[in-house]
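Suppose a colleague, Dr. K., hands you the sequence of a protein chain of 155 amino acids and asks what its three-dimensional shape might be. Before reaching for any lab equipment, you can write down a predicted structure in token form. Begin with the sequence itself:
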Amino acid sequence: MNIAARNYTSGAEIIASANAVHQRLMGRPPQRKQPMIAVAAPDKPKPRPRSPMWRKWPIKFDAHVIEWRERMLSPCKAHMRSRCKELGITMKALCGLRRTHPLVDYRQLIMWELKTIVKPEMSYPELGRLFGGRDHTTGLHAVRRIAEKKAKGML
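The predicted structure, expressed as tokens, is then:
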């Protein structure tokens, strides 16, 4: 197959050639889009969005709703939540990325409790996933470290 290159002398000649090829292949000439003209919109006051009632006032659930929510959690998550309340930290902080000293100690202690007391058959990858998608070696290190501290009598 022998293809010859064409030499064009102007931009209009290139456009005309492209239109001819397009018409030959598609059967109709290409449609050119008209440039949009920016028209300034009249100044209208924007309506203020209405805030839902639950954003204005906190929702106070009854005790049975709170108890039902706690029962719907897995035993491991329920233990984590109750220990967070006792230690004065949030679940978000416990499962978060921060590595401040007291927070790491609490995280390791709760990992040890989960692995040895609450659910001993839990695998280390599962333990890591409970704490915000951590690696299995994090759980393994936490369990070994707390066991070491308990053996030395530091806890």
